[in-house]
């Protein structure tokens, strides 16, 4: 079986993933849809021979969608580097980050019509049967992806995902409860939670 040590959906520019990369000798897959992030991601790990890079967005079907991201030159103007990591299928999600110190507007946002890939198609593309650690950080679409996973076809040992935007920007309680119950039925147990991410392990 084709075992990947790490799969990251929404890998951003790869910052913060260094320890995970160092700790696995198995294959790694990084998926990132924002082009300038993807180029930085490739450059950051260009010497790692076990990493596959995929410049795709992941959704629960192949319907054409608009994908929104903050323009690279606007990131510098707005003065918040984290703005590179809030690309989303929802323009509202990006604008909802507006604050006194982050004066984003429509002109700062890029839009591209894309055909996303599904989780199942991603697994088929790289012939992935087992994942030691799956990390999902896709600005509110985590629920759709998790619900679309065929856990019978892909054995996932550990699942980590960002939960803070599951219902809306910075709103998550209702959907998080449902996802916890859903994953419990799939034999996943919550083992850790911080202000942004929650971790589950397969327990059977």
Low-confidence stretches: none
Distance between the ends:
19 Å
Kindly state the mean pLDDT as a whole number?
90
Strand content: 25-35%
Q: Estimate the helix proportion, in percent.
A: 25-40%
Would you give an account of this structure?
This protein has 204 residues and is of the alpha/beta class. It folds into two domains: 3-60 and 120-202, Rossmann fold (3-Layer(aba) Sandwich); 65-114, no CATH class. The chain is built from seven helices and twelve strands. Strand 11 and strand 12 (197-202) form a beta hairpin. The longest helix has 13 residues, at 173-185. It is globular, with a radius of gyration of 17 Å. The two termini are 19 Å apart.
Write the layout of secondary structure elements.
Layout: E1 3-9, H1 18-22, E2 27-31, H2 35-44, E3 51-54, E4 58-59, E5 65-70, H3 72-78, H4 91-95, E6 109-114, E7 117-118, H5 119-125, E8 130-136, H6 142-148, E9 155-156, E10 158-162, H7 173-185, E11 188-193, E12 197-202
Parallel strand pairs: 1-2, 1-8, 2-3, 4-7, 8-9, 8-10
Antiparallel strand pairs: 5-6, 10-12, 11-12
What is this entry, summarized?
This protein is α/β, with parallel strands linked by helices and 204 residues long.
Q: Which key terms come to mind for this protein?
A:
204 residues, alpha/beta, Rossmann fold, 2 domains, eight-stranded mixed β-sheet, globular
């Amino acid at each position: 079986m084709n075992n990947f040590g790490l799969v990251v959906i929404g890998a951003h520019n790869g910052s913060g993933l260094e320890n995970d990369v160092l700790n696995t000798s198995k294959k790694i897959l990084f998926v990132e849809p924002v082009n300038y992030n993807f180029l930085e991601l490739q450059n950051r790990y260009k010497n790692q021979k076990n990493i596959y890079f995929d410049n795709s967005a992941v959704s629960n079907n192949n319907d054409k969608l608009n994908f929104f991201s903050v323009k690279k030159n606007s990131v510098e103007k707005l003065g918040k580097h984290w703005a590179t990591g809030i690309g989303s299928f929802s323009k509202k999600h990006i604008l909802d980050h507006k604050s006194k110190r982050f004066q984003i507007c429509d002109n700062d946002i890029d839009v591209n019509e894309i055909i996303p890939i599904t989780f199942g198609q991603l697994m088929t593309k790289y012939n992935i049967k087992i994942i030691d650690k799956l990390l999902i950080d896709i600005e509110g679409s985590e629920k759709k992806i998790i619900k679309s996973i065929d856990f019978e076809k892909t054995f996932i040992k550990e699942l980590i995902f960002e939960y803070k935007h599951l219902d809306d920007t910075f709103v998550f309680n209702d959907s998080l409860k449902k996802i916890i119950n859903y994953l419990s039925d799939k034999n996943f147990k919550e083992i850790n939670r911080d202000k942004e991410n929650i971790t589950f392990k397969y327990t059977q």
